[in-house]
Design goal:
This protein is mainly beta and about 150 residues long. The protein has two helices and nine strands. The chain has a single domain, classed as Lipocalin (Beta Barrel).
């Protein structure tokens, strides 16, 4: 019986040894957006077709007190006339709040306190995570049809 329990434990841990070793402390720091990808119907990952022009840029920060903040926009980002100034929020994502890591599920939940779009504030959103060296990949849950790659800022 004991050997069966040990075998089952070893199999469960061996299915994804990286997740078994991850903790909330691994998130702490500042991360710069490297790319955003979307999954095609055939399952291939390609650059995400975004409703904004320019190259996506951004930053996400996690601290050791459970706080997080993210901002994503594009580069270049230009407002040509003062009349266009109200449109400056289009193509810009920003929110902050608390975060919670579930290493068993391989997820991080962003508990939003506020969002640049008031309709998206006070929501909790789940992201599947994967660490690879200095890269953090967050896949939008539950379908995981979009993922963002973040590089740790030294």
């Amino acid at each position: 019986m004991r050997s069966t329990i040990l075998l089952c434990t070893a199999i469960c841990l061996s299915t994804d040894p990286l997740l078994a070793q991850q903790s909330a402390a691994d998130f702490v720091g500042t991360w710069e957006l490297a790319s955003i990808e979307a999954r095609t119907e055939g399952g291939e990952w390609v650059p995400a077709p975004l409703p904004i022009s320019g190259r996506p840029v951004g930053i996400i920060m996690y601290d050791d007190n459970g706080n997080m903040a993210v901002q994503i926009t594009t580069e270049p980002r230009v407002v040509e006339t003062p009349a266009e100034a109200p449109e400056i929020v289009h193509g810009y994502i920003a929110y902050y709040g608390k975060y919670e890591v579930d290493t068993r599920a391989g997820t991080v939940t962003h508990h939003r306190t506020n969002h640049i779009n008031p309709d998206l504030g006070n929501l909790s959103v789940v992201r599947h995570f994967r660490f690879s060296g200095d890269t953090l990949t967050l896949a939008v849950a539950p379908e995981q049809q979009m993922r963002l790659h973040w590089l740790r800022v030294p």
